[in-house]
Specification:
The protein has 8 helices and 9 strands. The chain is α/β, with parallel strands linked by helices. The protein binds ligand LYK5OOP5. Its EC number is 3.2.2.n1.
């Protein structure tokens, strides 16, 4: 059968070849660059899903090769003359000397102290910042900083890239981070995740309540509260993590 000659012009669009009436009057790049159109879609959930994906991609990319790390939490309001500021700095320095990177929320107070300890020790000082209504900016001691729009994306990073948590006295933000880790450990979503509460005077009352009232009322299983290790001793914090790794 004779081959039908067909030299009509064609348009290649990625893997697709178009001819005749299927040919577009402009290129994909022209449509991308020349037009604006309505902008409402920027404020819709499908677009947010892409932004959320982008945050995960950026976070995973920045932290994938971090090596062993500990996340330190504590009040954004801890002042440099508060003994807990120095404690946070010391804990970070000592963990850094054992080869751990230090991850914090990148803010002021106990976070700044921990980043300072890690940076001064020559280790990896990570800050996972969060967009807040009153912009604070990252503390000056963060050497590797990632800023997040979404709390839940940021919280994934704290858990995914750390071997455990050290929690210094703090407010709602600190409690949120502590109880997220406890819930993940209790439900088996993370295995072997040491959580140290530093400062027995601050945490003792909460731990007593968790045992006497929450566990006493059957709302947790006996033994759940033992996931929390309370101490006032920096050496003990360090040996708790080092022993876990052995
Ligand atoms: C409110 C103040 C500063 C807020 N800046 C913060 N920057 C980064 N991360 C923060 C900030 N505030 C809270 N966080 C996170 O929660 C934890 C501390 O919260 P708390 O309520 O102070 O305990 C901390 O670990 C961060 O991850 C200045 O006054």
């Amino acid at each position: 059968m004779a081959q039908r000659m067909n030299n009509r012009p064609s348009h290649q669009q990625g893997p697709i070849r178009l001819k005749g009436r299927q040919m577009p009057s402009s290129t994909t790049d022209q449509r991308l660059l020349d037009s604006r159109g309505p902008t409402d879609w920027v404020h819709t959930d499908p677009w947010r899903v892409l932004r959320i994906q982008a945050e995960f991609v950026e976070g995973f990319g920045a932290l994938a090769e971090l090596g062993p790390a500990v996340s330190l939490f504590g009040s954004a309001r801890t002042q440099p003359d508060d003994p807990m500021y120095e404690a946070s700095r010391q804990i970070a320095t000592r963990l850094c000397a054992e080869g751990y990177a230090i991850i914090t929320g990148g803010g002021p107070g106990a976070m700044e102290a921990a980043n300072r300890g890690a940076s001064e020790c020559g280790g990896v000082s990570v800050g996972l910042g969060i967009e807040l209504p009153h912009e604070q900016g990252m503390n000056d001691w963060v050497d590797l900083g990632v800023n997040f729009r979404y709390f839940f994306v940021r919280k994934t990073m704290f858990v995914k890239y750390a071997q455990g948590f050290v929690v210094l006295p703090g407010g709602f933000g600190t409690m949120d981070e502590l109880f997220e880790a406890l819930t993940l450990a209790q439900t088996g979503k993370v295995t072997s995740f040491p959580i140290v509460l530093f400062g027995s005077a601050y945490w003792g009352g909460l731990v007593d309540w968790l045992r006497a009232t929450m566990e006493g009322d059957g709302k947790t299983t006996p033994g759940d509260v033992d996931m929390l290790h309370v101490t006032d001793d920096v050496d003990e914090v360090v040996s708790y993590f080092v022993a876990e790794d052995d």
